[in-house]
Design a protein that fits this description.
The protein is built from five helices and ten strands. The strands form three sheets. A four-stranded antiparallel beta sheet has the order 1-10-4-7.
């Protein structure tokens, strides 16, 4: 039996693939595509209180939370931390996915609320995957684009809501 086949059938690898198939980015992919992606990922552990990502730092990888819970934090204009979301492993969340498309500054800090386990996919690995299997990469890229567009739409709606709230505080203004 080849080493690759042994690894593919290893219980931890099978469990990892089954977990990844529940991640929204991969749920429509062929099992072979998820197995291939799984083989490109590395496992990382993070203790409670550690920042996995820091807002403003350059990022080159996406993370898939397999165990624990995380807090998404944005810095306010005055430098205060503002919690935006709480992520739990049972929801199969991912973060940092924009880095698979373009290495750029992280848009938020991700803080471990408990001890956490993640699978990490480097941009360089995803780029090689996309070149070798564009038919598998395209659906992932489209889902990432939809996630980013959804977040942009929400941010735009939040700006309008804040604008109206501010204008309501100004004397006598109404829409």
């Amino acid at each position: 039996m080849s080493a690759a086949l042994k690894l593919q059938n290893h219980p931890l690898r099978v469990e990892q693939v089954e977990w990844l198939r529940k991640v929204m980015l991969f749920e429509e992919l062929d099992i072979k595509a998820v197995e291939y992606l799984s083989s490109l990922m590395v496992h990382q552990s993070f203790p409670q209180g550690e920042a996995i990502l820091k807002e403003g730092e350059e990022g080159h990888e996406a993370y898939f939370l397999t165990s624990g819970s995380l807090k998404v934090i944005k810095a306010t204009a005055s430098g205060e931390s503002f919690p935006v979301a709480l992520l739990h492993a049972h929801d199969h969340p991912f973060f940092g996915e924009a880095a698979l498309l373009q290495s750029d500054e992280r848009s938020a800090t991700i803080l471990c609320e408990s001890d956490c386990e993640c699978l990490v996919l480097a941009k360089s690995s995803f780029d090689a995957f996309a070149l070798k299997h564009p038919e598998w990469a395209l659906p992932i890229v489209l889902k990432i684009a939809r996630v980013i567009v959804g977040r942009l739409r929400k941010a735009n709606n939040d700006v309008v809501l804040l604008y109206h709230a501010l204008m309501n505080e100004v004397k006598g203004w109404s829409p």
